[in-house]
Amino acid sequence: MTEDIYKKILMKELIPALGCTEPIAIALAAAKAREVLGGMPDSVVISCSGNIVKNVKGVTVPNSGGMKGITAAAVLGICGGDPGKGLQVLEGITDEDRLEARRLLRDKDVRIVLVEDEENLYLAVRLENGDGSSMVEIKYDHTRFYSIEKDGKKLYECDAVNGASEDTDKSCLSLKSIIEYADSVDLMENWDLVEVLDRQINLNSAIADEGLSRRYGAEVGRTIMESGDPKDPRTRSKARAAAGSDARMGGSSLPVVINSGSGNQGMTVSIPVIEFARSMEVPMDKLYRALIVSNLMAIHQKKYIGKLSAFCGVVSASAAAGSGVGYLMDYDYKTISSIVTNTIATTGGMVCDGAKPSCASKIAMALDNMIMAINMSREGRTFHQGEGLVGSDVEETVRNIGRMARQGMKNTDTEILNIMIEN
């Protein structure tokens, strides 16, 4: 049944992660490689695709004591990571683990290799010592062990021909069917789904609070809240989502529920819906259904874009948040379609130049555009077919943006990476 597929997609995608997902994926692979090796390594080689390098270079690794980058994520995973915890692999890091990680960086051979002609989401960690070697690959998905080796022998290899076939089929997704599912799903019969949505509300709200209460990064969220009306849901949506990113990029140890493999996108799709729901004082049932719309609409767009590219994912996430807010306001399908179209037709050119503090300001800009899109759509104003990448309907527009992001921005992605490496 289609309803079962939608629920399965949500249950698979909406998982908690500690810190930015790319460095955490490196820590996860490294922790697993250490487990397979059975001891501390003398040599560590971390092989990464360009998009992994781009998204790890500028962020502080959580529970690291301020360490940044690929090698920091790997050695922390080796010294204290628990691979059984998935994207919360660094949750239990201790002071001794941090000291051991610094010793490993200082005394052992720890190297990074840039891998070309691979999937955008690809990394491998190879460990060696006098007793043997281990290697763990992650590919296509931040938590998918694509292959595991010990002493050159395969212990595990993904059965899928191209990896993507293991993913939940998302071909059934469309804005219209997503709204129909949100309208019809029996929440009393799907209490496990409600628990996932509650976790998203609680965890993402908590890290937004953290970002507003402490100094992280460039303090984008705090700046927006101080310069706007703190009671206005438009101000609160931008400030709190940005503050959550401030905290994540700044090394906060609080987890966030991700969407499409991204914590920044997870906050962007959820915080505005939560803030507007609280302002409107809607019942929890309505908030859950609106979050279903926003989460699934983000995932729907990303199936065309891909999890990592030169396209800034908070643009698609903000359009999805707009659909959730429109659902809260009881707008019809045509109006919600216009919100999505107006949002992605405006900021669809925002590039991803890696995970770093300015992601918070990009979230704020994308959500400011979402608010404009809502205001336009409420008055029946929308961009029309043939105007840039706008198609004949919302679905064609989503496909056009996805094609531009996945295919058209390949060279952009390469040039961004080259500039970042030079810097």
Automatic annotation (TrEMBL):
First and last residue of the signal peptide: none
Designated name of the protein: UPF0597 protein T472_0201455
Homology family: Belongs to the UPF0597 family.
Pfam families referenced in this protein's UniProt entry, alphabetically: SDH_alpha (PF03313)
Domain of life: Bacteria
Classification lineage: Bacteria, Bacillati, Bacillota, Clostridia, Eubacteriales
GO biological process: L-cysteine catabolic process to pyruvate
Segments forming domain Serine dehydratase-like alpha subunit: 85-418
Stretch list, region Disordered: 224-247
GO molecular function, one term: L-cysteine desulfhydrase activity
